[in-house]
Amino acid sequence: MTTPTAIPAGKAVPPPRPSRLWVRAGWTAVLLVVLAAFWRVNIDWSQLSDFVPSLFHYLRLMFCPPAWSQTSAAFSATILSVQMAWIGSILGILISFPLSFLAARNVVPVWVRLPVRLVLAILRAVPEVVIAILILSVTGLTAWTGALALGIGSIGTLGKWGYESFESVSGGPLEAARATGGSRLAVIRWGLWPQAQPEVLAFWLYRFEISVRSSAILGLIGAGGIGKMLSDNTQYQNWNVVGILLIVVVVVTMIIDQISAVLRQRLITGRWALVGYGARRKALTPTGLA
Amino acid sequence: MSDVPAQPAQPRAARPPRPRRGATPWVIGIVLAAITVWAARGVQIDIPAIWQNFSNASGTLMQLFQPDYGFFPQTLSAIEETLMMAVIATAIGSLGSVPLAFLASRATNPSRALLAAIRFLNNVIRAVPDLLYAAVFVAVVGTGALSGVLALFFFNIGILVKLVSESLDGLDRGPQEAALAAGGTWFAADRVSMLPSVAPSFASQVLYTFEVNIRASTVIGLVGAGGLGVLIDNVRTFYHYHYLSLIILEILVLVLVVETASSMLRKQLAR
């Protein structure tokens, strides 16, 4: 028979609050940086007061009504942008695929993968528009330039997602392939690739979605497609044409996103299903990406 | 006693039959090839042009490897403007996205109709790329940092509302149910239960958005929206590739530093 130990009388003392000094210091620093930015930036905030009315004014000019007569022109310009994105993705996939093997920890030694990773990191950091500006001097202002820029720009991200998914495969099949006397290449082909394949294919599709968005941007600096038509028409203030262009861009982008999301869902889960907005979709995008 | 029973004569081990894959891979391959050929014709792939023009262009491209560091002081104010646009846009974008994200999550918005409307609106916002916003806002409010901040703001709303509402969808709804059962309104329940639970992933997504903003704010100046992009546009019009290479180097350093710092912070948050 155990008797319950007596609780000592007196006021219960709550444990001391954990020190939040560093958290507070961090938030204060963030706040100071934001305030400094607001204070230093060369913006006349009073302009904002007529921003809302003028935004509605321009929205009315664009969409009430949009220039429906330009629909087919807008559509074919968007198709050119999508073609740019497709060719760019194919180029990016062809180049990044071998590179991502050469950057994976479980495939190559450190002295091979560090330089490859450095190249991939640099390619990721340079915006595609800047790559396009550089290539312009070689190939001129064409859609082909845009496709090349998208291709080079996608090597960085595709390569990174590739080696990350290669590194996350389980070691068992690799060991099995090695134990049966498989060569290095055979281990990759039969141990590594089958495990990573669905995810890598899904990333290729996802990167194509991103390239579709970027291809519209590349036109703004003259690389053809919808962006070129858009910058021409904003310059000449043809607002109702801008309206129809925006509508076509949004509709085409959303359709391509939806098709690609369904295909990615099929690749990852093996089932055909409509992909909604929610948590199911989260598993299909690379970590930390919108 | 311990004699092994004779093994029955075994037939040679036969491999299992290969699974039949049918025509599907061929169909997929042909479809992909057809799309590629169609796209290649549209884009007018011109590989010889690269070699033909390369000798002309190699001079300018060589300049890229010789950045003119003397140009650095002139770029400082543009770098500052780029950073400030990114900071301001991240701040107002993350504040503005909070109510919309709660309205866009199945877990925090009981009204299905409003939910569908907000999500559709956000999909539309997300479908417009950052530089298109910049091009339109430059036309509306004129060139300068304000149009850049506005463009980044809409761009951020699109990203953050999607990411945060998906985090909300994935949360444990026990505390919210408790708050509702105790007689709280939806607003009060979400404020005391869902908001604190989503805060760490919200912070991490804001950091990610800041990374995206740094990248975007370096180039939106190309269409007139302030920051380093304005400088890029100026030097490329006059073919000052020594200057351009310095600017690209600065973008590289800026993006890599911010990304490294932000991913370190995000790892801390994830623990």
Automatic annotation (TrEMBL), chain A:
Major subcellular site: membrane
Highest taxon in the source lineage: Bacteria
Pfam family, one: BPD_transp_1
Transmembrane segments: 21-41, 84-104, 236-256
InterPro entries registered for this protein in UniProt: MetI-like (IPR000515), MetI-like_sf (IPR035906), PhnE/PtxC (IPR005769)
Subcellular locations according to the entry: Cell membrane
MF-aspect GO terms: ABC-type phosphonate transporter activity
Signal peptide positions on this chain: none
Keyword hit for Transferase: no
Keywords per UniProt: Cell membrane, Membrane, Transmembrane, Transmembrane helix, Transport
Domain ABC transmembrane type-1: 78-260
SUPFAM superfamilies xrefs: MetI-like
Family: Belongs to the binding-protein-dependent transport system permease family.
Record-given protein name: Phosphonate ABC transporter, permease protein PhnE
Organism from which the protein derives: Flexivirga caeni
TrEMBL record, chain B:
Membrane topology summary: Multi-pass membrane protein
Subcellular location: Cell membrane
Sorted UniProt keywords: Cell membrane, Membrane, Transmembrane, Transmembrane helix, Transport
UniProt biased composition (Low complexity): 1-13
Segments passing through the bilayer: 23-40, 83-104, 131-155, 212-232, 238-258
Region (Disordered): 1-20
Ranges of residues in domain ABC transmembrane type-1: 79-262
Pfam families given in the database record: BPD_transp_1
GO-annotated molecular function: ABC-type phosphonate transporter activity
Similarity annotation: Belongs to the binding-protein-dependent transport system permease family.
Stated name of the protein: Phosphonate ABC transporter, permease protein PhnE
Organism, scientific name: Flexivirga caeni
